[in-house]
Amino acid sequence: MKIYDILWNDILSKVENDVTMLVYDTYFKQVKPVDIKDETFILSVPSQTVADVITGRYSDLLVSAIKETNSGAKNFSLTIVGQEGTIFSSQDDDEDLSSPIDPNYTFDNFVVGESNRYLYAAAKAVSSNPGSTYNPLYIYGDTGLGKTHIMHAIANEIKEKNPEIKILYATCEKFTTDLISRIKTGQAYAGGQNFRDKYRKVDVLIIDDIQFLAKKQTTQEEFFHTFNELYSQNKQIILSSDCRPSEIETLAERLRTRFEGGLMAQVIAPDIETKIAILQKKAENKKAIISYEVANFIAEHSNNDIRSLEGLLNKVIFASLLHEKPIDLDLAMLTLKQTSTIDSSETLTADDIIQEVCKFFNISKADITGKRRNKEIAEPRMICAYLMTDMLSLPLVAIGKSLGGRDYTTIIHARDTVAERIKQSTKTATQVNDIKNLILKK
Protein backbone atom coordinates (compact mmCIF):
# COMPACT_ATOMS: atom_id res chain seq x y z
CA MET A 1 0.00 0.00 0.00
CA LYS A 2 1.40 3.39 -1.04
CA ILE A 3 1.78 6.28 1.39
CA TYR A 4 -1.02 8.28 -0.18
CA ASP A 5 -3.39 5.30 0.28
CA ILE A 6 -2.62 5.25 4.00
CA LEU A 7 -3.06 9.00 4.30
CA TRP A 8 -6.31 8.90 2.31
CA ASN A 9 -7.75 6.31 4.71
CA ASP A 10 -6.92 8.69 7.55
CA ILE A 11 -8.66 11.54 5.71
CA LEU A 12 -11.74 9.41 5.07
CA SER A 13 -12.01 8.55 8.77
CA LYS A 14 -12.19 12.26 9.57
CA VAL A 15 -14.73 12.97 6.82
CA GLU A 16 -16.91 10.07 7.93
CA ASN A 17 -17.54 11.77 11.26
CA ASP A 18 -18.99 14.88 9.58
CA VAL A 19 -21.30 13.47 6.92
CA THR A 20 -24.18 11.01 6.86
CA MET A 21 -23.53 7.39 6.03
CA LEU A 22 -25.51 7.81 2.80
CA VAL A 23 -23.31 10.69 1.63
CA TYR A 24 -20.16 8.83 2.67
CA ASP A 25 -21.11 5.62 0.85
CA THR A 26 -22.52 7.35 -2.22
CA TYR A 27 -19.78 9.88 -2.84
CA PHE A 28 -16.64 9.71 -0.69
CA LYS A 29 -16.18 5.96 -1.11
CA GLN A 30 -16.06 6.58 -4.85
CA VAL A 31 -13.03 8.89 -4.52
CA LYS A 32 -9.63 7.28 -5.03
CA PRO A 33 -6.17 8.73 -4.26
CA VAL A 34 -3.75 8.98 -7.20
CA ASP A 35 -0.76 10.91 -5.86
CA ILE A 36 0.45 13.78 -3.68
CA LYS A 37 2.26 16.53 -5.57
CA ASP A 38 3.12 20.15 -4.71
CA GLU A 39 1.10 20.06 -1.47
CA THR A 40 -1.92 18.83 -3.40
CA PHE A 41 -3.76 15.52 -2.98
CA ILE A 42 -4.57 14.28 -6.50
CA LEU A 43 -7.84 12.35 -6.47
CA SER A 44 -9.95 10.59 -9.08
CA VAL A 45 -13.73 10.18 -9.21
CA PRO A 46 -15.85 7.94 -11.44
CA SER A 47 -18.22 10.60 -12.78
CA GLN A 48 -18.99 14.30 -13.14
CA THR A 49 -21.90 13.88 -10.71
CA VAL A 50 -19.61 12.74 -7.90
CA ALA A 51 -17.20 15.55 -8.73
CA ASP A 52 -19.98 18.16 -8.62
CA VAL A 53 -21.19 17.00 -5.20
CA ILE A 54 -17.70 16.86 -3.69
CA THR A 55 -16.65 20.27 -5.01
CA GLY A 56 -20.03 21.94 -4.57
CA ARG A 57 -20.86 20.89 -1.02
CA TYR A 58 -17.86 19.30 0.67
CA SER A 59 -14.78 21.07 -0.67
CA ASP A 60 -14.07 22.96 2.58
CA LEU A 61 -14.66 19.82 4.67
CA LEU A 62 -12.25 17.81 2.53
CA VAL A 63 -9.55 20.50 2.60
CA SER A 64 -9.87 20.68 6.39
CA ALA A 65 -9.48 16.91 6.73
CA ILE A 66 -6.45 16.92 4.41
CA LYS A 67 -4.74 19.64 6.46
CA GLU A 68 -5.23 17.61 9.66
CA THR A 69 -3.07 14.79 8.34
CA ASN A 70 0.73 14.75 8.41
CA SER A 71 0.93 14.57 4.64
CA GLY A 72 2.03 18.17 4.12
CA ALA A 73 -0.81 18.58 1.64
CA LYS A 74 -3.10 21.60 1.86
CA ASN A 75 -5.34 21.21 -1.17
CA PHE A 76 -6.81 18.65 -3.53
CA SER A 77 -7.49 18.29 -7.23
CA LEU A 78 -9.99 16.06 -9.01
CA THR A 79 -9.80 14.10 -12.24
CA ILE A 80 -12.47 11.87 -13.79
CA VAL A 81 -11.55 8.27 -14.57
CA GLY A 82 -10.98 7.87 -18.29
CA GLN A 83 -10.66 11.60 -18.98
CA GLU A 84 -7.56 13.73 -19.34
CA GLY A 85 -6.89 16.85 -17.33
CA THR A 86 -7.85 18.25 -13.92
CA ILE A 87 -11.47 19.34 -13.53
CA PHE A 88 -11.15 21.01 -10.12
CA SER A 89 -8.38 22.38 -7.90
CA SER A 90 -8.89 23.78 -4.41
CA GLN A 91 -6.68 26.54 -3.07
CA ASP A 92 -5.20 27.19 0.33
CA ASP A 93 -6.77 30.06 2.27
CA ASP A 94 -3.60 32.14 2.08
CA GLU A 95 -3.53 31.81 -1.70
CA ASP A 96 -7.24 31.96 -2.39
CA LEU A 97 -8.02 35.43 -3.66
CA SER A 98 -11.72 35.18 -2.92
CA SER A 99 -14.76 33.04 -2.52
CA PRO A 100 -15.67 31.73 -5.96
CA ILE A 101 -17.77 33.88 -8.26
CA ASP A 102 -20.77 31.83 -9.36
CA PRO A 103 -20.75 31.73 -13.19
CA ASN A 104 -24.48 30.97 -13.20
CA TYR A 105 -25.32 34.42 -11.83
CA THR A 106 -25.27 36.74 -14.84
CA PHE A 107 -27.16 39.74 -16.16
CA ASP A 108 -28.62 37.52 -18.87
CA ASN A 109 -30.55 35.40 -16.39
CA PHE A 110 -31.43 38.25 -14.02
CA VAL A 111 -35.11 38.98 -14.62
CA VAL A 112 -35.75 42.73 -14.71
CA GLY A 113 -39.08 44.14 -13.55
CA GLU A 114 -40.38 47.40 -12.16
CA SER A 115 -39.22 46.38 -8.67
CA ASN A 116 -35.54 46.04 -9.60
CA ARG A 117 -35.07 48.15 -12.72
CA TYR A 118 -33.12 50.86 -10.85
CA LEU A 119 -30.80 48.29 -9.26
CA TYR A 120 -30.20 46.60 -12.61
CA ALA A 121 -29.30 49.90 -14.28
CA ALA A 122 -26.90 50.80 -11.46
CA ALA A 123 -25.23 47.38 -11.59
CA LYS A 124 -24.79 47.56 -15.37
CA ALA A 125 -23.25 51.02 -15.07
CA VAL A 126 -20.75 49.81 -12.46
CA SER A 127 -19.81 46.75 -14.50
CA SER A 128 -19.19 48.94 -17.55
CA ASN A 129 -16.93 51.40 -15.76
CA PRO A 130 -15.75 50.00 -12.41
CA GLY A 131 -14.14 52.41 -10.00
CA SER A 132 -15.34 55.62 -11.56
CA THR A 133 -19.11 55.60 -12.12
CA TYR A 134 -20.69 54.81 -8.76
CA ASN A 135 -18.27 54.06 -5.96
CA PRO A 136 -19.17 52.51 -3.63
CA LEU A 137 -22.31 50.76 -4.84
CA TYR A 138 -24.37 49.93 -1.75
CA ILE A 139 -27.18 47.41 -2.37
CA TYR A 140 -29.72 46.85 0.39
CA GLY A 141 -32.99 45.01 0.91
CA ASP A 142 -34.54 41.94 2.52
CA THR A 143 -32.98 38.52 2.13
CA GLY A 144 -33.74 36.37 -0.88
CA LEU A 145 -34.43 39.20 -3.32
CA GLY A 146 -31.41 38.85 -5.58
CA LYS A 147 -28.64 40.92 -3.98
CA THR A 148 -26.09 38.13 -4.25
CA HIS A 149 -27.15 37.38 -7.82
CA ILE A 150 -26.63 40.96 -8.97
CA MET A 151 -23.22 41.22 -7.27
CA HIS A 152 -21.99 38.03 -8.93
CA ALA A 153 -23.43 39.28 -12.23
CA ILE A 154 -21.35 42.46 -11.91
CA ALA A 155 -18.23 40.40 -11.20
CA ASN A 156 -18.87 38.06 -14.13
CA GLU A 157 -19.46 40.98 -16.51
CA ILE A 158 -16.28 42.77 -15.43
CA LYS A 159 -14.24 39.59 -15.68
CA GLU A 160 -15.58 38.82 -19.14
CA LYS A 161 -14.55 42.25 -20.41
CA ASN A 162 -11.16 42.22 -18.70
CA PRO A 163 -9.90 38.83 -17.43
CA GLU A 164 -6.84 40.49 -15.86
CA ILE A 165 -8.89 42.42 -13.30
CA LYS A 166 -8.56 41.05 -9.76
CA ILE A 167 -11.96 40.62 -8.11
CA LEU A 168 -12.48 39.55 -4.51
CA TYR A 169 -15.93 38.47 -3.33
CA ALA A 170 -16.37 37.62 0.35
CA THR A 171 -18.97 37.84 3.07
CA CYS A 172 -18.49 40.27 5.94
CA GLU A 173 -18.29 37.22 8.21
CA LYS A 174 -15.38 35.91 6.11
CA PHE A 175 -13.63 39.29 6.38
CA THR A 176 -14.04 39.13 10.17
CA THR A 177 -12.83 35.55 10.55
CA ASP A 178 -9.83 36.28 8.32
CA LEU A 179 -8.96 39.25 10.52
CA ILE A 180 -9.31 37.20 13.72
CA SER A 181 -7.16 34.43 12.25
CA ARG A 182 -4.41 36.88 11.31
CA ILE A 183 -4.54 38.51 14.74
CA LYS A 184 -4.05 35.10 16.35
CA THR A 185 -1.08 34.31 14.14
CA GLY A 186 0.43 37.79 14.40
CA GLN A 187 -0.02 38.55 10.73
CA ALA A 188 -2.69 41.22 10.89
CA TYR A 189 -0.55 44.18 11.79
CA ALA A 190 3.18 44.88 12.10
CA GLY A 191 5.26 41.96 10.93
CA GLY A 192 2.88 40.57 8.35
CA GLN A 193 0.76 42.03 5.58
CA ASN A 194 -0.98 38.88 4.31
CA PHE A 195 -4.45 39.88 5.44
CA ARG A 196 -4.17 43.43 4.16
CA ASP A 197 -2.66 42.31 0.87
CA LYS A 198 -5.56 39.95 0.29
CA TYR A 199 -8.23 42.62 0.66
CA ARG A 200 -6.38 45.70 -0.57
CA LYS A 201 -4.47 44.50 -3.61
CA VAL A 202 -7.57 43.98 -5.72
CA ASP A 203 -9.35 45.98 -8.39
CA VAL A 204 -12.88 45.16 -7.26
CA LEU A 205 -13.89 44.35 -3.67
CA ILE A 206 -17.35 42.84 -3.14
CA ILE A 207 -18.51 42.34 0.44
CA ASP A 208 -21.82 40.61 1.11
CA ASP A 209 -23.86 41.15 4.31
CA ILE A 210 -21.92 44.21 5.46
CA GLN A 211 -24.45 44.61 8.30
CA PHE A 212 -22.33 42.13 10.25
CA LEU A 213 -19.95 45.00 11.01
CA ALA A 214 -22.46 45.85 13.75
CA LYS A 215 -20.82 45.96 17.20
CA LYS A 216 -17.42 44.84 15.83
CA GLN A 217 -15.18 47.82 16.51
CA THR A 218 -11.86 46.21 15.52
CA THR A 219 -13.35 44.87 12.28
CA GLN A 220 -14.84 48.29 11.52
CA GLU A 221 -11.44 49.90 12.07
CA GLU A 222 -9.75 47.47 9.67
CA PHE A 223 -12.49 47.78 7.07
CA PHE A 224 -12.33 51.58 7.27
CA HIS A 225 -8.66 51.52 6.27
CA THR A 226 -9.31 48.88 3.60
CA PHE A 227 -12.10 51.03 2.16
CA ASN A 228 -9.94 54.16 2.14
CA GLU A 229 -7.01 52.38 0.51
CA LEU A 230 -9.13 51.04 -2.34
CA TYR A 231 -11.20 54.19 -2.78
CA SER A 232 -8.12 56.41 -3.03
CA GLN A 233 -6.90 54.23 -5.92
CA ASN A 234 -10.28 54.32 -7.71
CA LYS A 235 -10.85 50.64 -7.08
CA GLN A 236 -14.51 49.57 -7.20
CA ILE A 237 -16.23 48.71 -3.92
CA ILE A 238 -19.59 46.91 -3.87
CA LEU A 239 -21.43 46.25 -0.62
CA SER A 240 -24.70 44.54 0.23
CA SER A 241 -26.81 44.67 3.36
CA ASP A 242 -30.32 43.96 4.55
CA CYS A 243 -30.67 47.55 5.76
CA ARG A 244 -29.46 51.12 5.22
CA PRO A 245 -26.08 52.14 6.68
CA SER A 246 -27.85 54.30 9.26
CA GLU A 247 -29.65 51.19 10.55
CA ILE A 248 -26.48 49.15 11.22
CA GLU A 249 -26.08 49.18 14.97
CA THR A 250 -23.00 51.03 16.32
CA LEU A 251 -21.63 51.57 12.82
CA ALA A 252 -18.93 54.23 13.00
CA GLU A 253 -20.02 57.56 11.55
CA ARG A 254 -17.02 57.72 9.24
CA LEU A 255 -18.03 54.37 7.70
CA ARG A 256 -21.68 55.37 7.42
CA THR A 257 -20.83 58.52 5.48
CA ARG A 258 -18.54 56.58 3.15
CA PHE A 259 -21.18 53.92 2.49
CA GLU A 260 -23.74 56.61 1.71
CA GLY A 261 -21.28 58.63 -0.39
CA GLY A 262 -21.65 56.49 -3.51
CA LEU A 263 -24.88 55.11 -4.94
CA MET A 264 -27.43 53.37 -2.74
CA ALA A 265 -29.74 50.98 -4.59
CA GLN A 266 -32.60 49.26 -2.82
CA VAL A 267 -33.87 45.90 -3.97
CA ILE A 268 -37.56 45.40 -3.18
CA ALA A 269 -39.92 42.47 -3.37
CA PRO A 270 -40.98 41.61 -6.94
CA ASP A 271 -44.51 42.33 -8.10
CA ILE A 272 -46.69 39.52 -9.44
CA GLU A 273 -45.65 40.10 -13.06
CA THR A 274 -41.97 39.93 -12.19
CA LYS A 275 -42.54 36.79 -10.12
CA ILE A 276 -44.17 35.10 -13.11
CA ALA A 277 -41.27 36.10 -15.36
CA ILE A 278 -38.76 34.80 -12.80
CA LEU A 279 -40.59 31.48 -12.53
CA GLN A 280 -40.69 31.01 -16.29
CA LYS A 281 -37.00 31.90 -16.61
CA LYS A 282 -35.96 29.52 -13.84
CA ALA A 283 -38.16 26.75 -15.25
CA GLU A 284 -36.49 27.25 -18.62
CA ASN A 285 -33.06 26.94 -16.99
CA LYS A 286 -34.20 23.70 -15.35
CA LYS A 287 -35.41 22.32 -18.71
CA ALA A 288 -39.01 22.38 -17.51
CA ILE A 289 -42.08 23.85 -19.18
CA ILE A 290 -44.69 25.72 -17.15
CA SER A 291 -47.65 27.66 -18.46
CA TYR A 292 -48.55 31.21 -17.52
CA GLU A 293 -51.48 29.78 -15.54
CA VAL A 294 -49.21 27.58 -13.42
CA ALA A 295 -46.63 30.37 -12.94
CA ASN A 296 -49.37 32.75 -11.87
CA PHE A 297 -50.72 30.23 -9.34
CA ILE A 298 -47.28 29.63 -7.80
CA ALA A 299 -46.56 33.37 -7.72
CA GLU A 300 -49.82 34.11 -5.91
CA HIS A 301 -49.07 31.55 -3.21
CA SER A 302 -45.43 32.46 -2.63
CA ASN A 303 -43.76 34.74 -0.13
CA ASN A 304 -42.13 37.96 -1.27
CA ASP A 305 -38.61 36.57 -1.67
CA ILE A 306 -37.21 34.88 -4.76
CA ARG A 307 -35.71 31.96 -2.83
CA SER A 308 -39.09 30.77 -1.57
CA LEU A 309 -40.48 31.31 -5.07
CA GLU A 310 -37.84 29.00 -6.52
CA GLY A 311 -38.47 26.53 -3.70
CA LEU A 312 -42.12 26.19 -4.71
CA LEU A 313 -41.13 25.75 -8.35
CA ASN A 314 -38.69 23.00 -7.39
CA LYS A 315 -41.43 21.15 -5.49
CA VAL A 316 -43.72 21.23 -8.50
CA ILE A 317 -40.97 20.11 -10.90
CA PHE A 318 -40.01 17.29 -8.55
CA ALA A 319 -43.64 16.15 -8.30
CA SER A 320 -43.85 16.15 -12.09
CA LEU A 321 -40.77 13.91 -12.38
CA LEU A 322 -41.85 11.68 -9.49
CA HIS A 323 -45.33 11.01 -10.87
CA GLU A 324 -44.27 11.25 -14.52
CA LYS A 325 -46.93 13.85 -15.21
CA PRO A 326 -46.76 17.14 -17.11
CA ILE A 327 -46.76 20.32 -15.06
CA ASP A 328 -50.33 21.62 -15.15
CA LEU A 329 -52.48 23.59 -12.74
CA ASP A 330 -53.95 20.49 -11.07
CA LEU A 331 -50.48 19.11 -10.32
CA ALA A 332 -49.28 22.47 -8.96
CA MET A 333 -52.34 22.85 -6.72
CA LEU A 334 -52.08 19.29 -5.39
CA THR A 335 -48.34 19.53 -4.78
CA LEU A 336 -48.45 22.81 -2.89
CA LYS A 337 -51.46 21.72 -0.87
CA GLN A 338 -49.79 18.43 0.08
CA THR A 339 -46.71 20.29 1.29
CA SER A 340 -48.98 22.63 3.27
CA THR A 341 -47.75 25.68 1.38
CA ILE A 342 -51.35 26.70 0.87
CA ASP A 343 -53.64 27.45 3.79
CA SER A 344 -51.27 26.50 6.65
CA SER A 345 -48.95 29.52 6.48
CA GLU A 346 -51.71 31.94 7.40
CA THR A 347 -52.36 30.25 10.78
CA LEU A 348 -48.74 29.46 11.66
CA THR A 349 -47.30 31.40 14.60
CA ALA A 350 -43.90 31.93 16.18
CA ASP A 351 -45.00 29.83 19.17
CA ASP A 352 -45.80 26.91 16.84
CA ILE A 353 -42.23 26.94 15.55
CA ILE A 354 -40.72 27.30 19.03
CA GLN A 355 -42.84 24.41 20.28
CA GLU A 356 -41.74 22.00 17.54
CA VAL A 357 -38.06 22.98 17.83
CA CYS A 358 -38.21 22.39 21.58
CA LYS A 359 -39.81 18.97 21.08
CA PHE A 360 -37.25 17.98 18.47
CA PHE A 361 -34.24 18.89 20.61
CA ASN A 362 -35.88 18.00 23.94
CA ILE A 363 -35.43 21.44 25.46
CA SER A 364 -37.85 23.96 26.97
CA LYS A 365 -39.22 27.23 25.66
CA ALA A 366 -37.40 28.94 28.55
CA ASP A 367 -34.14 27.56 27.12
CA ILE A 368 -34.90 28.97 23.66
CA THR A 369 -35.86 32.43 24.93
CA GLY A 370 -33.32 32.55 27.75
CA LYS A 371 -29.73 33.75 28.01
CA ARG A 372 -27.86 30.44 27.90
CA ARG A 373 -25.36 30.19 25.02
CA ASN A 374 -24.08 26.63 25.29
CA LYS A 375 -24.13 24.65 22.05
CA GLU A 376 -27.10 22.47 23.05
CA ILE A 377 -29.28 25.58 23.34
CA ALA A 378 -27.65 28.04 20.92
CA GLU A 379 -27.97 25.80 17.85
CA PRO A 380 -31.72 25.05 18.30
CA ARG A 381 -32.26 28.78 18.94
CA MET A 382 -30.57 29.65 15.64
CA ILE A 383 -32.62 27.03 13.80
CA CYS A 384 -35.72 28.54 15.39
CA ALA A 385 -34.76 31.98 14.08
CA TYR A 386 -34.03 30.57 10.62
CA LEU A 387 -37.41 28.80 10.42
CA MET A 388 -39.26 31.93 11.54
CA THR A 389 -37.63 34.04 8.83
CA ASP A 390 -38.33 31.30 6.30
CA MET A 391 -41.93 30.44 7.23
CA LEU A 392 -43.44 33.58 8.75
CA SER A 393 -44.10 37.01 7.30
CA LEU A 394 -42.81 38.79 10.39
CA PRO A 395 -40.37 41.69 10.75
CA LEU A 396 -36.95 40.73 12.12
CA VAL A 397 -37.64 42.84 15.20
CA ALA A 398 -40.81 40.83 15.94
CA ILE A 399 -38.92 37.56 15.55
CA GLY A 400 -36.24 38.81 17.92
CA LYS A 401 -38.92 39.73 20.46
CA SER A 402 -40.46 36.25 20.31
CA LEU A 403 -37.02 34.76 20.99
CA GLY A 404 -36.45 36.55 24.26
CA GLY A 405 -36.02 40.13 23.10
CA ARG A 406 -32.98 39.64 20.86
CA ASP A 407 -32.05 42.41 18.44
CA TYR A 408 -32.53 42.06 14.71
CA THR A 409 -28.80 41.71 13.98
CA THR A 410 -28.74 38.56 16.12
CA ILE A 411 -31.65 37.15 14.10
CA ILE A 412 -29.89 37.99 10.82
CA HIS A 413 -26.71 36.27 12.02
CA ALA A 414 -28.64 33.17 13.12
CA ARG A 415 -30.59 33.02 9.86
CA ASP A 416 -27.53 33.31 7.64
CA THR A 417 -25.43 30.93 9.76
CA VAL A 418 -28.05 28.18 9.53
CA ALA A 419 -28.57 28.83 5.82
CA GLU A 420 -24.83 28.34 5.25
CA ARG A 421 -24.75 25.20 7.39
CA ILE A 422 -27.65 23.73 5.41
CA LYS A 423 -25.50 24.05 2.27
CA GLN A 424 -22.46 22.47 3.90
CA SER A 425 -23.91 19.91 6.34
CA THR A 426 -26.36 17.17 5.42
CA LYS A 427 -27.07 16.68 9.12
CA THR A 428 -28.23 20.28 9.57
CA ALA A 429 -30.22 20.20 6.32
CA THR A 430 -32.01 17.03 7.45
CA GLN A 431 -32.76 18.42 10.91
CA VAL A 432 -34.23 21.64 9.52
CA ASN A 433 -36.28 19.81 6.93
CA ASP A 434 -37.63 17.33 9.51
CA ILE A 435 -38.64 20.11 11.89
CA LYS A 436 -40.26 22.05 9.06
CA ASN A 437 -42.32 19.01 8.09
CA LEU A 438 -43.42 18.55 11.71
CA ILE A 439 -44.49 22.19 11.86
CA LEU A 440 -46.47 22.01 8.62
CA LYS A 441 -48.25 18.85 9.71
CA LYS A 442 -49.69 20.52 12.82
Please tell me how large the radius of gyration is. 23 Å
Q: Bin the helical content.
A: 40-55%
- Total count of helical runs of at least 4 residues: 20
Q: Identify low-pLDDT runs.
A: 93-98, 188-193
Separation of the first and last Cα atoms? 55 Å
Order of helices and strands: HHEEHHEEHEHEHHEHEHEHHHHHHHHHH
- What topology, given as strand order, has the largest sheet? 6-7-8-5-9
Q: How many extended strands? A: 9
Category by helix and strand content:
alpha/beta
Q: Tell the overall outline.
A: globular
Described by strand count, sense and barrel closure, the largest sheet is:
5 strands, parallel
Mean pLDDT: 83
Share of β-strand residues = 5-15%
Key descriptive features of the protein:
442 residues, alpha/beta, 5-stranded parallel sheet, 4-stranded mixed sheet, 20 helices, 9 strands, 53% helix, globular
Q: What does the model show?
A:
This protein has 442 residues and is α/β, with parallel strands linked by helices. Helix content is 53%, strand content 10%. The chain has 20 helices and nine strands. A five-stranded parallel beta sheet has the order 6-7-8-5-9, with helices on both faces. Strands 1-2-3-4 form a four-stranded mixed beta sheet. Helix 11 crosses helix 13, helix 12 runs parallel beside helix 14 and helix 15 crosses helix 20. The longest helix has 18 residues. The radius of gyration is 23 Å and the shape is globular. About 3% of the residues have low confidence.
Please render the helix and strand layout as text.
Blueprint: H1 3-16, H2 21-26, E1 32-37, E2 40-45, H3 48-57, H4 59-67, E3 75-80, E4 88-89, H5 117-128, E5 137-140, H6 147-161, E6 167-171, H7 172-185, H8 194-200, E7 204-208, H9 217-232, E8 236-241, H10 253-259, E9 263-266, H11 272-285, H12 292-300, H13 306-323, H14 329-338, H15 350-361, H16 365-369, H17 375-391, H18 396-402, H19 408-424, H20 426-440
